[in-house]
Amino acid sequence: MLKQKEQNSQAAAEKGGIQAFSGYVWLRRNLASIIALMIMVVLLTFTTNSFMVSTNLISVTRQVCVNCFIAFGITCVLICGGIDLSVGSVVAAAGVIAVRMANSGMPVIFAVLVALIFGAIIGLFNGYVISHTTIPAFIVTLSVQISIRGVGYLLTGGLPAQCTNDAFNNLGTGSFLKIPIPVIIVIVTLVILYFIMSRTSFGRHVYATGGNIEAAKYAGVNTRSIQMRVFMMSGILAALAGVVLAARLYSGQPSVGEGFERDAIAASVLGGTSFNGGIGTLGGTVVGVLIIGVLNNGMNLLKINSYWQYVVKGIVILGAVYIDFMKKRKSLKK
Amino acid sequence: MPSEYILEMKDIKKAFGSNVVLDDVNISIKAGETRALMGENGAGKSTLMKILGGIYSADSGTIYIDGNQVAINKVDDARQYGVSFIHQEITNISSMTIAENLFLGREPKNKLGLVDYKRMHRDARNALDALDLDMDTHSLIDGLSVAQQQMLEIARAVNENAKILIMDEPTASLSNSEVSNLFKQVARLKEKGVAIIYISHRMEETFLVCDTVTVLRDGKFIGTKNTKETNDNELISMMVGREFENMYGNERAIGGDTILEVKNLSSSYVKDVSFTLKKGEILGFSGLVGAGRTETALALFGIDQITSGEIWLDGKQVSIKCPQDAIKAGIALVPEERKVQGLFLSHTIATNLSFQVLSQFIQHLRVDKKKEKGIIDRYKKTLSIRMASVNQLVSELSGGNQQKIVISKWLAANPKVLILDEPTRGIDVGAKAEIYKLMSNLAKEGVSIIMISSELPEVINNSSRIVVMHEGQVAAILDPDKDEISQEIIMSYAV
Question: For chain A, does the N or the C end have fewer beta carbons within 10 angstroms?
Answer without folding.
Answer: N
